[in-house]
Design brief:
It is a single chain. The radius of gyration is 19 Å and the shape is globular. It starts with a helix and ends in a 5-residue tail after the last strand. A hairpin with a 7-residue loop joins strand 6 and strand 7. It is of the alpha/beta class. The longest helix is centred in the middle third of the chain and has 25 residues. Helix content is about 40%, strand content about 25%. Helix 3 packs across helix 4. The structure holds adenosine-5'-diphosphate (ADP) and N-acetyl-L-glutamyl 5-phosphate (X2W). The site of adenosine-5'-diphosphate has 19 residues, from helix 8. Adenosine-5'-diphosphate binds next to helix 8. Its EC number is 2.7.2.8. Keywords: Kinase, Transferase. It comes from Amphibiibacter pelophylacis.
């Protein structure tokens, strides 16, 4: 590289940094809970970009907390043992064998990969599940049908979170670690529960009084029945879309968690596209939010 092209590159780098610095500085000391969906981590280069973003945010004094999913990775592991996954309104039906596979994949594989990538990118990450430090406990979920009032579904060993104790997260943060949390809860008698990762992310965001909850997935955000991105969503719109079936499957727990968090005071809640390289850093650094912003009311 010649000196003049290097000068130009440095000028451009400094201009870019200066432009995004105010937005990033406003987040210093604030907690950003990031749900990293299994569908947004299927590509290794995207995973590396995500890890770089986490390491950069941490270096800037912002405190990210990662909750990871792994639905597609669990599907693959189930297929390898000759089992087919089944979902009931976005929740995996979890029998004994499925619970074992879920634990291997989430706590044994996906969590370690994310921790490793963040550390390799220059950050400091530590993995844990709901069991560690009594972070979150659950009882067996009786899943209400999203459309038919009074109808409930048994989904096996799926957890309904009862208690979140964020002390262990605060300890890790005080020691400079980014917690990377697997959505496995502990129940009475030491039973493990499979919990939807969007639900865990919302519970953690509320317990930490987070500034932002970012749910990274494999769509541009919440789409209407014609497939167009909805930039803003209110509870009334969500109600109507659930009833007419234009929000379904994996989007059901996501939107419920987003709404609960927005209503409980998390300042900014987004469902956004995790397939975009550096989606997280772009969201933190740019004044316009990306994806769908979920609002607590019609205002
Ligand atoms: N209205 C909607 N807008 C966007 N996605 C929707 C909608 N309704 C259902 N979905 C489904 O929800 C999926 C995202 O949830 P999920 O598969 O659980 O992903 P993740 O692994 O990121 O949690 C989308 O890929 C899409 O198939
Ligand atoms: C109860 C339930 O459905 N648990 C999820 C946990 C993983 C998850 O939520 O992964 P994604 O975020 O990638 O969908 C499952 O077993 O797939």
């Amino acid at each position: 590289m010649t000196d003049s092209s290097s000068d130009a590159l440095w000028s451009q780098t400094v201009d870019t940094l200066s432009a995004v610095l105010p937005q990033l500085m406003a987040l210093r000391g604030k907690t950003l809970v990031v749900k990293y969906g299994g569908n947004a981590m299927t590509d290794v280069s995207l995973q590396r970009a995500f890890a770089q973003d986490i390491a950069l945010l941490q270096a800037l004094g912002i405190t990210p907390v990662v909750v990871h999913g792994g639905g597609p990775q669990i599907e693959k592991a189930l297929a390898a043992v000759g089992k087919e996954g089944r979902f009931v309104h976005g929740m995996r039906y979890t029998d004994d064998q499925t619970m074992q596979v879920v634990q291997w994949v989430l706590a044994g594989q996906v969590q370690g990969e994310i921790v490793g990538l963040i550390n390799a990118a220059g950050g400091r990450a530590m993995g844990l599940t709901g069991r560690d430090g009594g972070l979150f406990s659950a009882t067996r979920l009786n899943l209400p049908d999203p459309i038919q009032p009074g109808v409930f579904h048994d989904v096996g060993w799926v957890g309904d979170i009862q208690k979140v104790d964020p002390a262990v997260i605060r300890d890790l943060q005080a020691r400079g670690y980014v917690p990377v949390i697997s959505p496995i809860a502990v129940g009475e008698n030491n039973q493990s529960f499979n919990v939807n990762a969007d639900v865990v992310a919302g519970e953690i965001a509320r317990a930490l009084d987070a500034e932002r909850l970012l749910l990274l997935t494999n769509t541009a955000g919440v789409l209407d029945a014609q497939g167009a991105l909805l930039k803003d969503l209110t509870p009334a719109m969500v109600d109507a879309m659930v009833k007419d079936g234009s929000i379904s499957g994996g989007m059901l727990p996501k939107i419920a968690s987003a709404l609960d968090s927005a209503r409980s005071g998390v300042r900014s809640v987004h469902i956004m596209d995790g397939r975009v390289p550096h989606a997280l850093f772009r969201e933190a650094a740019s004044p316009q939010g990306t994806g769908t912003v979920v609002r607590p009311d019609a205002a």
